[in-house]
Amino acid sequence: MIAALVTEAMKARRSHMPWMTAVAFTVVALVGGMFMFILQDQDRARSLGLIGTKAALAGGQADWPTYLAFLSQSTAIGGMIVFGMVSVWTFGREYSQNTVKDLLALPTSRVVIVAAKFAVTTAWCLVLTTQLFLLGLATGSLLGLPGWSAAVVLTGLVRVAVVALMTIVLTTPVALAACVGRGYLPGVGVMIMAVFCAQIVAALGYGEFFPWSVPAVLSGLAGPDQPAPGLVGNGLVLLVGTAGVVATAMWWRQADHDR
Asked: Is the pTM of this model over 0.90?
């Protein structure tokens, strides 16, 4: 297991994907900071050319609770895309680069290889989440946002962490699709479909019953009138994640890898 973990970590370190995903989450934090900067003084923003002379932003305040809520909501939507791409790359690259046969020929259990891949992708996504929150704290402090307190920051941190963990769990079927489809595109297709369906179901008011909508509902992205995910919603997230891991391991172990 240690050798498999080291190998997967080395693959990630020597690729451009960690830098690309880090840039994506950096942009998220900076965009949130830009919105807070505009909301602080919209006349100033107009004079700087950040918004049109007749444009106005509404529906939020430039304070810490609003900014931290933006970070959690961005994690729910952007995280599904970025974390999904991490899973697609980690599993799909073996087929696209024709290295899967090399892994299958090693004296290492195929289940161990799958476990190492999921462990590395999970750690990778958690590092990205930590980066987002730290950048958010730095950006909010630089802007001098009001409403700072230990309770507010702790609540925001817990929400971002829970939303990120749920989103990571929900990307396991994306990894399965990349394996079954033997490449990147099937995984990307499943990821896009999940994000699209999650938005529709949440808008209809049934987000707590659709696993991929649960992180958005928890973050408040679906609106204040949506009920918080209960035992059913959280259970469905756990069920989907567990099924994705088990099915991916079984695919690697039982499928006919003819190419």
From this structure: no
